[in-house]
Structure formats: structure tokens, C-alpha cells
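Render this sequence as a predicted structure.
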Amino acid sequence: MGNEIEKRGVQFIKKRRDKIFAGQTFVLYGFDEEGIPALTAYIKEGGGVVLQTSDRRIPDFAIVPMDGFPVDRTVNNIVTNTWMLPGGLLFNPYYGSII
């Protein structure tokens, strides 16, 4: 029985690692209310977790628009929404698509 539980644990870890944002936490700054749901869905689909700006944990990444936005808290990395996609394709948060 212990061996079966160990196998399931390994499978769970492997699945989490298959996703691009697995185990990473994010906070969003400077986006319109219309763009936040699309960005949040993209991050969650990639295995990431979006924190509220009021959350006390230190996020791995703060995501800001291309033209920047002040980040008023401690974060490990500040990146733009362009960084989020392979190949540097721009994510359009208003339409939930790549432009």
C-alpha cells in the first residue's frame, strides 16, 4: 500500500512540473479590471497561483503592463505580461488572446 501512495505522489509532482507556472505565485499590478480575469486564467491554466495584492506572502512574480507600473511591495521578480509567453509574444489581456 505504501508503494502505491508513493507512486501517486510522484505522478502528482510530475504533472505539476509539466505546467509552465507550476508552483509559482503571482500578483498583478496595473491592469484594467477587464484584463485581470484573462491573465488570472492563463496563469492558473499554467499551474500558477494568483495572490491578492493584500496577501502577506511574498510572490515569486509581480506582473506589470509593458509600460510599467509601480510595485509597492516585496516580490522576488518583476516582469511584464510579455515575459509570460514563450517566444515573447504579447498577451492581450483585454481579449484573452495573443496578438
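Summary. The helical segments are 2-18, 36-45. Strands lie at 25-28, 49-50, 61-64, 77-80, 91-92, 97-98.
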